[in-house]
Design goal:
This protein is mainly alpha-helical. 79% of the residues lie in helices and 0% in strands. It contains one helix and no strands.
């Protein structure tokens, strides 16, 4: 019977670890989303600065001639 308790304890521990990992994964996903939004904002800001400085649309924002 002691084996049964040991298995139940191990299963409970593994469930807690999976839940902790799931929480951490969700937290990192939110952090990645925030960082992506910040990078997009910085890219937009820099594209605006390039446009104001040179008077043209930055090359990264231009469609290729075949479009």
């Amino acid at each position: 019977m002691a084996e049964g308790w040991a298995l139940e304890e191990r299963i409970a521990q593994l469930i807690r670890e999976v839940e902790d990992l799931s929480d951490e994964l969700a937290r990192r996903g939110r952090e990645i989303d925030l960082l992506r939004r910040q990078v997009d904002m910085l890219l937009d800001r820099e594209a605006g600065r390039e446009f104001e400085a040179g008077g043209t649309v930055p090359l990264a924002d231009q469609k290729p001639p075949h479009w």
